[in-house]
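ugh ok fine here u go
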Amino acid sequence: MLHDQAHTLTFIGFGEAAQAFVSRMDRSGLDTVRAFDLKVMGEQRADVMATCAAYDVECCDDLPTALKGADIVWSVVTADQAYPAALEVAELIQAGAFFLDCNSCAPHTKQAADQVITEAGAHYVDVAVMSPVLPARNKTPMLLSGEYSTVAQTLLTQLNMNATVEPGPVGTASAIKMVRSIMVKGMEALFAECTLAGRLAGVDQQVFASLEASTPGYHWAKRAGYNLERMTLHGERRAAEMEEVCAFLDHLGIPEKLSATTVRWQRRLAESGVKAREDDYATAADELLDAFALKPYERPVIKP
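structure:
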């Protein structure tokens, strides 16, 4: 367990998740909160610095500065950058520090990261985020697994976070997350395909009404808007996560992966340039159809 002292917490990556967590966590036991995001090294530097300042977080110009003296390191990057980030952190992290790997990765990716962090003398924790970070923020449910998960749960509870231990080695929590994402992100892709096809064919309202009649209270049209907003805003990150899902499915021997198509749908909407609003699926769908150069289906005229 951590000693009774003020701690330095460093976020690796400072996107939506890190911002949501830090906005409501109990910082009374923290001496310093820092962040290093690769965007600070490019054209978005001013934006990153302004965002950090808004959350009273010290924005660091490089990884060595961010990790100096940090005894809690929280990795919140995209899935494809999770292992590379762990490799870089392993070169600099202080012995005995906690490395909270909060990225949506396959179990074998987490296990590889665990190895390099452990070899550096730090304590690796597999963290799986089990719901959207907004609006729950610090109360977003998390699963922890690995040797140091119980100690990490105590630490996160002190920060007023919502963490539960999932007994088992590193990768246990992530396996749950990956299989869950097959459904969650896959449903998003199905919603996108259904909604765009419905708009093209001019039958979207009838389709959603029929679905609502079959499954009352699911609010199909509202969910369509929400899912399109999520995909256009976070589709690239979701695509990277689903690539990890596909790698896990390969490891399990699952053939004919629908998740591979989910990757393409997520990425395509992310790259569309459309900024969908969750309260208006029809406008979002029409803007996506324009971006994809798709025109409404012209029904053939049947002459008597």
